[in-house]
Amino acid sequence: MPVTRLRRPSLPSSVLPKLGRSLGGPSSVDANHLLALIAHLRLLYASADEGAAQPSDSAVETTEFSSEVEEDETVDPLHQHDAFERTWAINWLNLVVRRGEDWVQEAQDAGDDKERELRLRIVDEAASLVSLMTATSESGSILRPLLLPTCLPDADPQTEPLLITLNDALPSSLDPTSVGLQSWGSSIILARMIALEPYKFGLGLPNHRALELGAGTGLLSLVWKGMSERLGTPSEVFATDYHEGVLENLKRNVEANSAAISPITSPAASPHLNPADVGLPSSNVSSLASSVSSLPVQAHKLDWSAVHSSRAFSAASNRGVPVPVNMPPPFDRPFHTLLAADVVYGPTHAQWLKSCVEQFLIKPDAAPSPADETAALPRDIAELSLDDSAASSRDEADAKALPLPSRPALHETASSAVVDSQPSHVAKTFNTTGPTASPQPAHRPAFHLIVPLRPTHAEAIATIELVFPKREALEPRASDDAPYRVAIETVTEIERVQGVGRSDEENYRLYRISWC
C-alpha cells in the first residue's frame, strides 16, 4: 500500500532559535532569517483563512520551514490553536520586540541605514503579530468530544462507552502556565487506559481518594470519577492546577460533564452522588461526606514549589528528616492514587513532583490490607482479578450478570522484546524489580505519571529518572521502623497513535511510582 506524504509547516518549538541577551550579540541570528521566521509564524497564526485547520498547501510551499511527513504522522489538526506552541511563539516574538530597540540603535550608531530599516521592519512585524495573537487568543475555544471505550470491540458483554466533552480554551496571556487550557495527547492515552483497565490502576476499591496534579482540562479526573461511579465504588477526586484561568476552565469542564461521569444508571448500576441515597456502609459515608458538593470532581489550586519549599524547611528543622507538613483540606489527608500527564517541562518540575508524592501519597502501612479491602468489596467485584484465569473461577451465569469492563489486551508486557502486534496502544512494561518479579497488586498506592517524549523536552524528561530512583537501586528497608522511599516501580513505553497528540511526540512513557 503506497504511503501518502504531505508537506506540513514546522511547529514554532522546532524552528525558533534561542535569542541571546542582545539580538546583535555573539549568538545573534541573521536579520533576514529572523524576518523569514516571523513570516512563518504569520502563516501559522494570521493566515487569511482563519477557519482552516491547516494553512493552504500553496502557502505551505512558500515557506522554507516545512517538511514532508507521512499521512499517519501529520500534525494535530488543532496545532494552530495548540496552547504550548502558541505560547512559545508569543514569548519568542515578545523577546524580539523587547530587545529590538537596542538592536536598531546599534545599526543607527554604525551609520548603516539599510540595516537599520531592516531591523525596524523586523521589530514592527514582531510587535504587530504578537499583538494580533494575544488579541485573538482572548476569545474562542474548541469543544473536543472524547468517546472512551470501556471494553474491547469483541468483548462480551459490551459496556457503555464514557463520553467526555472538553473545552479546550485558547491561551489568554503570555503566561506559559496557560498551556493547561488544552488537552494533551498523553492525558488522552492515559484516560483510555484507565477506562479500559480500571482495576489495573486501583479503581473499584472503597474509600478511595485520588489527586490529579497539573490537571489542565481535568480529563484524567473526570475519567477516574466516571469509572469509579460505574464500578459502584465512587472515589473522592480532586483536580489541581496553579493557573487561575486553567482552574476556571477546569471547573467548567466538570460542570459540563457531571451528568456523563455520574449517571443515575450505568453498566454497573452506578449509585447517586449523595451517599445518603446510596445505602453505602457508614465508613463510606463518612469518607465521602468530607468533599460532597455540587461538583463530582473538586478543583483546587496547588503550588508544587510551595509544597517542595515547605518540606525542605521541615527537613532543615528536623535534622534532615523530611516530615509531612500541615496543609488545609482537602490536602490534610493522604491520597491512594496520584495522577499526572505531561507536566514535566522544566528542570525543577520532577523534584517538585517528588515532594508532592512524598507529601500526599498514602503510606503502605496506613492503607488497608488486601484482605480488608477484599472483604469490603461486593462479591462480584471482589472476585475480579488482573489474572486472566479469574473469569474461569466464576460460572457462566455470574459472568454474564456482571456488565463490567473485562480486562482487555490493551498492551503486552515484556522485559525486553519489542511488541510485534499493533493494537490501539502498543507498549512494553519494564518492572524495575526484574523481569521475573510478580505483578504488583492493583490496590497498592501509586503515582501514575505519563509524559510525551519530545526532542524539545528531552532534558526535562531525563530529570524524572534522576530524581526518582528505580526500585531495584534502593537497599531494602532495614526494619519496619525504617522510612519508606518513593521509587519508580515500572516504566511502560507507549507508541504514538494516529490522530492523538502532536507530530513531535514520538512516543510516550508511563511511570508507576510507589513507596518501597
Descriptive account of the structure:
- By secondary structure, this protein is an alpha/beta fold.
- It folds into two domains: 5-136, no CATH class; 141-455, 3-Layer(aba) Sandwich (Rossmann fold), CATH 3.40.50.150.
- The chain has 15 helices and twelve strands.
- It has an eight-stranded mixed beta sheet.
- Helix 7 links the parallel strand 5 and strand 6.
- Helix 7 runs parallel beside helix 8 and helix 10 (304-317) packs across helix 11.
- The radius of gyration is 25 Å and the shape is globular.
Kindly report the spatial arrangement of strands forming the biggest sheet.
7-6-5-8-10-12-11-9
For the termini, the CA-CA separation is: 50 Å
Strand content: 5-15%
Largest β sheet strand count, sense and barrel closure: 8 strands, mixed
The CATH class name of the largest domain reads Alpha Beta
Task: Outline the secondary-structure elements.
Blueprint: E1 5-9, H1 12-15, H2 31-45, H3 57-62, E2 66-70, H4 83-109, H5 113-136, E3 141-148, E4 162-169, H6 185-196, E5 209-212, H7 219-230, E6 236-241, H8 244-261, H9 282-289, E7 297-301, H10 304-317, E8 337-341, H11 349-360, H12 370-376, H13 379-382, H14 396-401, E9 427-431, E10 446-452, H15 458-467, E11 486-495, E12 507-515
Parallel strand pairs: 5-6, 5-8, 6-7, 8-10
Antiparallel strand pairs: 1-2, 3-4, 9-11, 10-12, 11-12
Helix pairs in contact: 2-5, 4-5, 6-7, 7-8, 10-11, 11-15
